[in-house]
Design goal:
Strand order of the largest sheet: 15-18-19-14-13-21-22
Distance between the termini: 67 Å
CATH topology of the largest domain: Aldehyde Dehydrogenase, Chain A, domain 1
Largest sheet: 7 strands, mixed
Number of domains: 2
CATH superfamily of the largest domain: Aldehyde Dehydrogenase, Chain A, domain 1
CATH architecture of the largest domain: 3-Layer(aba) Sandwich
CATH class of the largest domain: Alpha Beta
Radius of gyration: 23 Å
Length: 480
């Protein structure tokens, strides 16, 4: 472990192809042990402006580069991620507290994300338009091409410090855009590793620029810069709303979280499988996943049985050192976040919620908590708890379940277990979400699907085939 730490005292930012010293640093803390494991450079205003200028100047050359070169670089990134798989996974665990089993899975997903982006770069194209189908279009040929936007800003959170950046950086490169990347200050070490890999893979100078700092400073500069043409942000609703307010006319892609629901319909027989999936969906990464299960709606005929099985399974979850391959989850990102979630639970109980399982808090670790008799006046139901806290509620009709799903201000993913085709189709038609996951938990995501939400869950879609459309604009051509 000590050997791993040595390379992480880098009080620098990466601008125009070089690591630059900064006056101030940001300490990186292991959320499980509380020890300092590294330091990165805190970008000044001048550093951020220099990074934007670097991306702007590099764009003029990069946008004219052949698709073959973009695809080749992206495949080389995937190859180098594979070669450094274990050191990256251990770094993710050290700085985020994510269980190593899921950190390794995140590296695998990032490899896929860069590969999917390479495949899309190979075939980036436009379409012909039958303009002579319209009056006045006779004797004309129409077509459009997709052209890159320009410098883009990627602002990424702590909970997936490798794959969420991959979902912003890989499509940008495939599209021909240049990037200024601001990762979470909690997890900057993974960002250093990925930046080094991008450079070693052949990403041209100035195409990737990395700056560290608080969103209230660094993020504000990026959001208000006229030279940034798109902002892709994953994080909280208040910050997303702030970015929309100050970003002017530039494109914004926002993934702002959820309080995802799981619906278990009448007649579902494989409850053991459902419980196994629900436990992972609720507790993986301490519930710090945008599509973690927070609300479970169970038909009255199965409510008692499912609740008992889920509580018993929750008691068996192994919690502790995230480096232990048998551990499901370890600490939350900070003790303050664990205290906040604990307070939400206590407030709900004061308001009438009944704990089926009341997990204790030990520092930054919060043990599984299961509530019932809850309502939408409680934060644990109406807001994103982002913690290992689940509420189970009964429903009588499937229509009622859909109404409860839709009562949320969020709309990212919903999971529906049902043996009924008509109810499945009703869920697809009526659930106000970005993704309806049938006969699985809402925590399902693969990296080539269109991922994103509606309502307060944000706007735009990730997944390389769909994100590249966001990172480019249509240029139409009419030829007479």
């Amino acid at each position: 472990m000590e050997e791993l730490h040595k390379e992480f005292v880098r009080q620098k930012v990466f601008i125009r192809g070089e690591w630059r010293d900064t006056e101030e640093g940001i300490d990186v803390i292991n959320p499980y042990t509380g020890e300092k494991i590294g330091m990165v450079g805190r970008a000044s205003r001048e550093d951020v402006l220099s990074a934007i200028k670097s991306a702007k100047e590099a764009f003029d050359d990069f946008r004219h580069g052949p698709l073959m070169l973009r695809a080749k670089v992206l495949r080389e990134v995937a190859k180098r991620l594979e070669q450094k798989r274990e050191v990256i996974a251990r770094t993710i665990t050290l700085e985020s507290g994510k269980a190593i089993r899921f950190a390794r899975g995140e590296v695998s997903r990032a490899i896929e994300t860069f590969t999917f982006a390479a495949d899309e770069a190979d075939k980036l194209s436009g379409e012909t338009v039958p303009v002579d189908a319209a009056a006045g279009g006779e004797g004309r040929m129409g077509f459009f091409i997709r052209v890159p936007l320009g410098p883009v800003a990627a602002i990424t959170p702590f909970n997936f410090p490798l794959n969420l950046p991959a979902h912003k950086i890989a499509p940008a490169i495939a599209a021909g855009d240049t990037i200024v990347w601001k990762p979470s200050s909690y997890t900057p070490l993974t960002a250093i590793l990925l930046t080094d890999i991008l450079v070693d893979a052949g990403v041209p100078e100035g195409v990737i620029n990395l700056v560290f700092g608080p969103g209230s400073e660094t993020g504000e500069i990026l959001s208000t810069s006229d030279d940034i043409k798109l902002i892709s942000f994953t994080g909280s609703v208040p910050v997303g709303e702030r970015i929309r307010k100050i970003s002017g006319m530039k494109k914004t892609l926002l993934e702002l979280g959820s309080n995802s629901a799981l619906v278990i319909d009448e007649g579902v027989e494989n409850l053991e499988e459902v419980v196994d999936r629900a436990v992972i969906g609720a507790y993986a990464n301490s519930g710090q996943v945008c599509i973690s299960i927070q609300r479970i709606y169970v038909h009255t005929s199965l409510f008692d049985k499912f609740s008992e099985m889920f509580v018993e399974a929750s008691k068996q979850v192994k919690i502790g050192d995230p480096m232990d391959p048998d551990v499901l989850y370890g600490p939350m990102i900070t003790e303050e976040e664990a205290i906040r979630a604990e307070k939400w639970v206590k407030d709900a109980i004061k308001m009438g919620a009944r704990p089926l399982l009341l997990g204790k808090r030990e520092g930054s670790i919060l043990y599984p908590t299961v509530l019932t008799d809850v309502n939408f006046e409680m934060d644990v139901v109406s807001r994103e708890v982002f913690a290992p806290v689940v509420s189970i509620m009964p429903f009588s009709t499937f229509e009622q379940a859909v109404q409860l799903v839709n009562r949320s201000m969020y709309g990212l993913n919903v999971g529906i277990y049902t043996p009924s085709i008509s109810n499945m189709l009703m869920a697809v038609r009526e659930c106000e979400v970005g993704s309806v996951i049938i006969n699985d938990y809402p925590t399902f995501r693969v990296d080539n699907m269109p991922y994103g939400g509606v309502k307060m869950s944000g706007m735009g879609r990730e997944g390389p085939p769909f994100a590249i459309e966001e990172y480019t604009e249509i240029r139409f051509v009419s030829m007479r």
